[in-house]
Amino acid sequence: MSMTQQAEPAVTTPPASGPKETDGRTAQRSTALRLLARPEVGVFLGALAVLVFFLITAPPMRDAGSMANILYQSSTIGIMALPVALLMIGGEFDLSSGVAVIASALTAAMITYQLSMNVWAGVLLALAMSLAVGFLNGWLLVRTGLPSFLITLGTFLILQGVNLAVTKLVTGNVATDDISDMDGFSQAKAVFASSFDVGGVEVKITVVWWLVFAALATWVLLRTRYGNWIFAVGGNKDSARAVGVPVTFTKISLFMLVGFGAWFVGMHQLFAFNTVQSGEGVGQELIYIAAAVIGGCLLTGGAGSAIGPVFGAFMFGMVQQGIVYAGWNPDWFKAFLGVMLLGATLINLWVSRAATRR
Description:
It is a single chain. The chain is mainly alpha-helical. Helix content is 71%, strand content 2%. It contains 15 helices and two strands. It has helices spanning 3-7, 25-36, 41-57, 64-89, 97-114, 119-144, 148-171, 185-192, 205-223, 225-235, 237-242, 247-273, 284-294, 307-325, 333-356, and strands spanning 195-198, 201-204. The chain has a two-stranded antiparallel sheet with strand order 1-2. Strand 1 and strand 2 form a beta hairpin. Helix 4 (64-89) packs antiparallel against helix 12 and helix 9 packs across helix 10.
């Protein structure tokens, strides 16, 4: 029923025939509000503004090679930001995602080198470990009812300590051994850390994987029953359970998706650099969460998209590299990220209120 029909009083006589007068403003406003209500619109406009800003202030960014480098930096953030965003839409978040990336890479590297196994054996065992960590986080959440903040904070501290202690115990160092001469390394590198030429510009394979995962996540959210479950449990899990949504399965599987993302990014880091530093990853979880929030995902759950975090990660990549290309002090990077996060949060709040205002 349209707004005009709702405003008409009940009458027993039919309305007069003839065309209705309209100036088009109502339909135009309705379209604009529907567009503003999309969670990714604000971050798209923000990313466009940041791009224009750095194209003006940092001339090296106009080079195609520089843009390929920005896309690469964005993809390493964006691949993890996608499952983190889905988890946030489902009403939870994961503070262990940053160190989980390193834990996965360390597992694959040490199994491969110390046990003299084929690289793919280490890759698959690292995948099993990452999924197990995600399952444990989700299982503890649904079994105890504790906030995901507390559970994943505990996992973060455990993994941080285990990463360093086990690596030093096994290798005698804080980093893993070089695995570039192990069986299967070249094939795994082709999947996780290769590059290809596009018009004379080298593009990393992670950019392709990033876009593929984003398209898949968008399809899942908008076209599948599982996507409806994610929004339902994030909005109100009790109401979702009452209408038959498998809340336990959905929550646990979302944490396992974060584990899969951590595994994939961990494999990229391992095969891109041949070795892994055990102390890395601390603080990256905040980058992933911030990219999702900038992309329009609410901390309270029940709202968001997969496209928004893509633009959020792209903004991070532009700022990270744009500061370097502009010749500024890179110490300002985190300050820029803080401004972006606060700005995006305020914009999302304004957009949400504007879209619901009558």
